[in-house]
Specification:
It is built from three helices and five strands.
Length: 135
């Protein structure tokens, strides 16, 4: 992995673990959402600042692959990379890792929308700049 990959640490809480002893599947979308918000903030764009400028995003598609279950107490790190930039949408790839091993991966498509409810918008330069070039 290149050094420009953003990594977000996650503390797995006991309540997120199911009867199988692993993180319940729905929590991964929450982890990825937190990682996305941190990714923007690390790039100089706190989420609220994006919204203050009249933009938000909607998740419109997600594909997740589970290889192993993350357990309570695991040192989980979510890596975030920009996979694709379109006109109104973009794709982020997420890699949930414990140590050097990839446990769960996801590809998530977001559409940029106006906060006033008028629908989708072209990705403005200030968001493109934070997303960077696709890997």
């Amino acid at each position: 992995m290149s050094s420009d990959v953003f990594t977000h640490p996650v503390t797995v809480r006991y309540m997120e673990v199911d009867q199988q002893g692993v993180v319940f599947n729905s929590w991964y979308l929450a982890y990825f959402d937190d990682a996305f918000t941190a990714f923007l903030g690390a790039g100089g764009l706190p989420y609220q600042a994006m919204m203050d400028r009249g933009y938000d995003v909607q998740l419109v598609h997600n594909e997740t692959t589970w290889r192993r279950g993350v357990r309570w107490g695991d040192d989980l790190r979510i890596q975030v990379t920009t996979a694709r930039l379109g006109t109104t949408s973009f794709v982020l790839d997420f890699d949930a890792r414990v140590g050097e091993e990839s446990y769960v991966t996801a590809s998530t498509t977001y559409v940029v929308i106006a906060t006033d409810g008028t629908g989708k918008r072209s990705i403005p330069d200030f968001i493109r700049d934070v997303l960077g070039e696709p890997a």
